[in-house]
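::Encoded backbone::
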Amino acid sequence: MMTTEDIADALEITAKLLELHNENPFKVKAISNAAYKLGKTRLDLTSLGLNELIGIEGISKSLAEKIIDFKNTGTTAELKNLLAKTPAGVIEMLGIKGLGPKKVRQLWQELELESVTDLLYACHESRLVELKGFGEKTQQSIIQNIEFKLKQTGWFHYAYAEKIGQPIVEAIKQHTDLVSFTGAMYRRREVIEEIDILIGDENLDTELFVSDTIPINFIQVNPTIFYRKLVETSSTAEHLNGIGFKNLETKPYNDEKSVYSNLNIQYCEPELREGLFELEKAKTHELPQLIEYTDLKGILHNHSTYSDGMNTLEEMAIYCKNLGYEYLGICDHSQTAVYADGLKVETILLQHQEIEKLNHQLYPFKIFKGIESDILNNGNLDYEEDVLKSFDFIVASVHANLKMDEEKANARLIKAIENPYTTILGHPTGRLLLGRPGYPINHKKIIDACAANKVVIELNAHPYRLDIDWRWIPYCLEKGVMISINPDAHQLHGYHDMRFGTYTARKGLLTADMCLNAMNLIEFETFLKTYKK
């Protein structure tokens, strides 16, 4: 039986959905007002009949009939119809503070956003700034409100958790050197439920460091067992069983490496302690030297104000150079991405002219002429061949028509991979962590196609993507398919996401020699000239 509060909520969502679909504004207002009044009343609607309901101020006969329907069935035919024709993610967007139905309709129809995570990603790409009625201030407010809402789900992106947890670890370091993230945080999982922090001090008052934004679990131990406990609490049960942790000698250890040495197991970096493909190699001492953030020499797949980026090409290049990188690959959106001001042919010519000018000014730093070409519904790349061949390299990505079954997705991606102008397959599944699972693909078939056609696969470093999933990187390496760690940066700060991409790549055993943008400038230039020859 629905309570009065339940009925008020049902009327409120009915009003919002009617407004979202641009229905009669007078009807919307009447239902909305009734929902507001009923939400404030202490009247028990469940005991009232039709005539009694009509006697309540603001309740018309049609509204009274809706209330009766809600009482009897829990819904109405009207609400069922509205829900059926509205994506669940769009309905969820209506729950974001500061976003009314009209604004949600704009985001849905004009920017084709269909989930809260879609919206958050669009905000970080600054796609709302130019939208009528929004602007930068509104965009920032939406980001804050979404992040607050996501806190309530019980899962958090690693990047967000790190932002909260790192200052706490640094504060604890003022009291003891024996402190570290542990658990999923130490393994740098893509999403986590809580921050685990190990402290080698049993008496420290941890109440000084509690956060109200994300659950924090403090594990306090005697300093003599700190490193033993760090390996134990940072590993999955499968990893501990695989390395024979129960056979570890009970004695003090000076670091984590000595714990593994005692077990005659090759040291496993924290990112690897998942109990998966690392175990076999660790037992035979065949784990490779994992890629380091400092191995990266260039940044590929970035956007400027030529499409939907926040900074000019020159600003993007200078900042990249000042960070110590040797080259930048600019990859603004292609013409089909109208929502992102995708580049028309004449704009490409202008950008290429500016690149030539900047390359002369910034030498020996170099900007490469790239494009993020949409993979069209039929698998073709955006632009005709004479335009495609004007680029130094091409990142081919799916951005539209994401609702595909596996057969359609595989066929679409493989056709793009087989295009001789495709250099990198961008964010292969289109997933958005905590928001969109991505379209289903047969990873082995896609990776095999990349191997056959000498196409690199992107590990999109944006902390909401981290796509390709690290669990498939070992198969890429087995097939000789290189990985490119790309930030998909739409503003200067986006370059720093390369760190998150590197963490994720390490989980998949990526080495520097199999990472495209770990090549220095000369090596990368040679690669572009020869890789498909």
Summary: The two ends are 70 Å apart (CA to CA). The chain has a mean pLDDT of 93. The domain at 293-530 is CATH 3.20.20.140 (TIM Barrel).
